Design the sequence.
């Protein structure tokens, strides 16, 4: 078959296959154009999940007839200065969106520049371009996309149900709305309002307004169960909020990442989030975060993915370290905070007890007679049982330096209150100034021991155990070179290795805490870590895992009776220990109930 040039219509449809994957892809491209045009209010309408109609209306800069005709040509853009593909400051810059959409659907663009007397409209029907016509429209732009994929019917069978496609479009709108809290967004499905996010009154929203926008999208619980973070290093700035470890989800779908106000799903940042929560998150659960990275334009490449969903950083190790460090620092500053479930959840969802009908006078008389002296005596089996243990208990292995309550009311001013009882040999019941706290003694002490062990490892080099017979690991030249480059870092972590011939390394010592470990697997995992993240993470992960296991076995067990001083010592150390709101497995260490919540449970409020 001889070589030939493809017709422009077919070229546009091939390009559309990269840009227009589903209705949500169209929504993303049109919203990015609206934001780049300076819009402050954007309305989106989808009918039949976007297959029948996608309409996006904005109050941005608008276009005249000449710009309108050029906007539907391939690679026509107003967003690149001096053909510079390095310093990209806009969301859309390739000039492919409108012609690609017009090649597979019926596209109508109506726009009016601010200050112009009238609007202009242009249609593109399956790649056939019309001419601008006068139209009526307020300043701004309205884009209608009808009969999506009618020109490429084979793509229609890959679409999901209208409800699923609408859900994907909602996710796109929500992510862009979180990135731009200064812009109002609305979404309708043709019959009802699905999403309404008004713009704040301030031109530049402050942190509280941005957090309110995040809470409106993620859920109101996020506002109460997230900690703010802020960090900067070598010109890269990170801000945002990290959910408490006990406030988590079953998937990573609630991890919202933004680079220079662009929503992304970047593997590097997702891996950094996972690493930051590695010793505080329960297995199979995922944290909720909203992270905003600001990176110099020449230090990030946003042109590595057709949908611009991924980015590439010039210094990936810097970005990863910044994310991990900022999240860990914010969680450590949260202290003993934990995301406590609602009181109705804690107590099995019981509704408040409703007042009972007033008893009859005869029943009241019986009650009065029953309250006469000597009318009631406890059963003999209960007479000898103390309410709280008064006998001496085994010494608790916490340092005696922790402050302790001297009398019944002295500890109420502490955040976790004063211990009042131990129930079922497992839980400490503490009274606070405005409620009570229930503490899982094993989970709490497990975190205390874990943090002490981590601090000990951070104070100096990790102890290494020399191998009786050094082990040779064949890796390949690239992987062996990566390990040799980080040999000093690995030695500080207790792993001593050196190059051994071509494509191999010889391991002479491993961290003593790892015990009898699989050296081959450990070294290969380290090489993979360095190749993917630019730093050896697997070793620290394994050491933290060993520390967590040792802490679990070294902690006070459930069922052990504790004295009041021991319980108070545990509470005081929890208040000063980072991450003490959750154990090493991510479970909460305590649950707090305010007096108002308790009163509501009993129908007093």
Sequence:
């Amino acid at each position: 078959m001889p070589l030939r040039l493809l017709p422009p219509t077919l070229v546009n449809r091939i390009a559309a296959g990269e840009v227009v994957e589903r209705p949500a892809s169209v929504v993303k491209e049109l919203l990015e154009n609206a934001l780049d045009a300076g819009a402050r209010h954007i309305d989106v309408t989808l009918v039949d999940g976007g297959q029948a109609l996608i309409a996006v209306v904005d109050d941005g800069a608008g276009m005249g007839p000449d710009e309108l005709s050029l906007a539907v040509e391939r690679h026509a853009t107003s967003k690149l200065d001096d053909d510079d593909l390095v310093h990209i400051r806009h969301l859309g810059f390739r000039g492919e969106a409108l012609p690609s959409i017009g090649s597979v659907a019926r596209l109508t663009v109506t726009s009016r520049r601010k200050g112009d007397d009238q609007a202009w409209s242009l249609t593109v029907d399956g790649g056939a371009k019309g001419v601008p016509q006068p139209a009526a429209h307020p300043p701004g732009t309205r884009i209608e996309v009808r009969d999506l994929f009618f020109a490429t019917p084979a793509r229609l069978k890959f679409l999901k149900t209208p409800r699923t496609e609408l859900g994907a479009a909602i996710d796109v709108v929500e992510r862009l709305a979180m990135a731009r809290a200064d812009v109002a967004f609305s979404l309708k499905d043709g019959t009802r309002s699905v999403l309404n996010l008004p713009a704040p009154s301030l031109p530049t929203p402050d942190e509280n307004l941005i957090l309110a926008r995040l809470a409106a999208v993620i859920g109101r619980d996020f506002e109460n169960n997230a900690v703010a973070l802020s960090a900067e290093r070598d010109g890269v700035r990170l801000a945002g909020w990290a959910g408490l470890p006990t406030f988590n989800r079953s998937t990573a779908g609630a991890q919202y990442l933004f680079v220079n106000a662009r929503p992304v799903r970047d593997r590097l940042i997702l891996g950094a989030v996972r690493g930051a929560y590695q010793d505080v998150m329960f297995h199979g659960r995922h944290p909720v975060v909203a992270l905003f990275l600001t990176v110099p334009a020449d230090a990030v490449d946003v042109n590595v993915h057709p949908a611009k969903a991924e980015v590439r950083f010039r210094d990936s190790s810097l970005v990863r370290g910044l994310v991990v460090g900022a999240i860990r620092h914010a969680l450590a500053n949260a202290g003993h905070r934990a995301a406590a479930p609602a009181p109705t959840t804690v107590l099995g969802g019981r509704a408040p007890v409703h007042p009972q009908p007033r008893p009859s006078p005869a029943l009241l008389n019986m009650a009065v007679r029953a309250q006469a002296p000597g009318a009631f005596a406890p059963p003999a089996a209960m007479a000898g049982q103390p309410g709280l243990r008064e006998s001496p208990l085994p010494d608790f292995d916490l340092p005696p330096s922790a402050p302790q309550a001297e009398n019944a009311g002295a500890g109420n001013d502490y955040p976790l209150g004063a211990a009042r009882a131990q129930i079922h040999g497992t839980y400490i019941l503490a009274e606070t100034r405005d409620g009570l706290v229930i503490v899982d003694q094993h989970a709490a002490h497990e975190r205390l021991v874990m943090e002490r062990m981590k601090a000990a490892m951070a104070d100096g080099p990790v102890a290494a155990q020399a191998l009786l017979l050094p082990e040779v690991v064949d890796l390949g030249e690239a992987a062996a070179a990566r390990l040799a480059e980080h040999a000093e870092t690995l030695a500080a972590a207790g792993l001593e290795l050196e190059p051994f011939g071509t494509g191999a390394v010889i391991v002479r010592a491993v961290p003593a805490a790892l015990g009898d470990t699989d050296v081959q697997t450990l070294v290969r995992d380290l090489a993979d870590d360095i190749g993917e993240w630019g730093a050896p993470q697997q070793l620290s992960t394994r050491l933290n895992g060993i520390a967590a296991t040792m802490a679990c076995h070294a902690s006070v067990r459930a069922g052990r009776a504790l004295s009041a001083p021991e319980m108070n010592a545990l509470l005081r150390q929890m208040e000063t220990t980072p991450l003490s709101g959750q154990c090493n497995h991510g479970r909460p260490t305590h649950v707090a109930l305010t007096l108002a919540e308790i009163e509501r449970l009993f129908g007093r409020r």
Observations:
- The domain at 8-197 is CATH 3.30.565.10 (Heat Shock Protein 90).
